[in-house]
TrEMBL record:
<comment type="function">
    <text>Specifically methylates guanosine-37 in various tRNAs.</text>
</comment>
<dbReference type="Pfam" id="PF01746">
    <property type="entry name" value="tRNA_m1G_MT"/>
</dbReference>
<keyword id="KW-0963">Cytoplasm</keyword>
<protein>
    <recommendedName>
        <fullName>tRNA (guanine-N(1)-)-methyltransferase</fullName>
        <ecNumber>2.1.1.228</ecNumber>
    </recommendedName>
</protein>
<dbReference type="InterPro" id="IPR023148">
    <property type="entry name" value="tRNA_m1G_MeTrfase_C_sf"/>
</dbReference>
<keyword id="KW-0489">Methyltransferase</keyword>
<feature type="binding site">
    <location>
        <begin position="136"/>
        <end position="141"/>
    </location>
    <ligand>
        <name>S-adenosyl-L-methionine</name>
    </ligand>
</feature>
<dbReference type="GO" id="GO:0002939">
    <property type="term" value="P:tRNA N1-guanine methylation"/>
</dbReference>
<dbReference type="InterPro" id="IPR002649">
    <property type="entry name" value="tRNA_m1G_MeTrfase_TrmD"/>
</dbReference>
<keyword id="KW-0808">Transferase</keyword>
<feature type="domain" description="tRNA methyltransferase TRMD/TRM10-type">
    <location>
        <begin position="1"/>
        <end position="227"/>
    </location>
</feature>
<feature type="binding site">
    <location>
        <position position="112"/>
    </location>
    <ligand>
        <name>S-adenosyl-L-methionine</name>
    </ligand>
</feature>
<keyword id="KW-0819">tRNA processing</keyword>
<dbReference type="InterPro" id="IPR029028">
    <property type="entry name" value="Alpha/beta_knot_MTases"/>
</dbReference>
<dbReference type="InterPro" id="IPR016009">
    <property type="entry name" value="tRNA_MeTrfase_TRMD/TRM10"/>
</dbReference>
<dbReference type="InterPro" id="IPR029026">
    <property type="entry name" value="tRNA_m1G_MTases_N"/>
</dbReference>
<comment type="similarity">
    <text>Belongs to the RNA methyltransferase TrmD family.</text>
</comment>
Amino acid sequence: MRIDIVTIFPEFFSVLDVSLLGKARTSGLIDLGVHDLRDFTHDRHRTVDDTPYGGGAGMVMKPEPWGEALDSIIDPAEHAPTVIFPSPAGRVFTQAMARELAEHPHLVFGCGRYEGIDQRVVDYAATKAEVRLVSLGDYVLNGGEVATMAMIEAIGRLIPGVVGNPESLVEESHEGGLLEYPSYTKPAVWREREVPPVLLSGNHAAIARWRHEQQIERTRSVRPELLPPPALD
Ligand code: ADE
């Protein structure tokens, strides 16, 4: 998968060199390009923002550098990429969305700062690519960088080959609609706390049943809205 990021903080993404995603880059599973929006400005101060038309607080990102950045990334000869603008005004990012985006060959993340990007950039991008506004959740970040990082991690680990053991993707929270069951490792007793005996029983059916019950109980307790509505009788 090809991933391009446009940002005024390219150094933010240096952490993508480490861990599983770093390995995925080295092995060629993920081809990452980080682009400094200021490289597409032409004034001495490398200006990327200006005051909003109509007034109001804060600054808006100017369209010109964004247009040039997107033109440099989107190759009209290639299949149109999917351009994601992280925004609290977007659709909320979910595991299902991560799964779907993991199948796209080319993602472009446009990280806005300040009060956002001039809307014409989004409208222009939509003539060249599939465009989505995506929110990490119902809270406000200072910009799109942290949201982009979270989405790339969630999407990247679903690309075949990135996570060594694909089975570890199957049983986790949000795959299958329930939260993950609690996990334990050795020692069997730690600070007088015992591992639930069923996990030491060797009875695989009983273990599977216990884990499923734990998933339901956890989900009921912290995320009841994820459970199917009770059947009417
Ligand atoms: N930018 C600022 N807040 C955001 C959020 N909640 N999700 C995505 N991008 C954002």
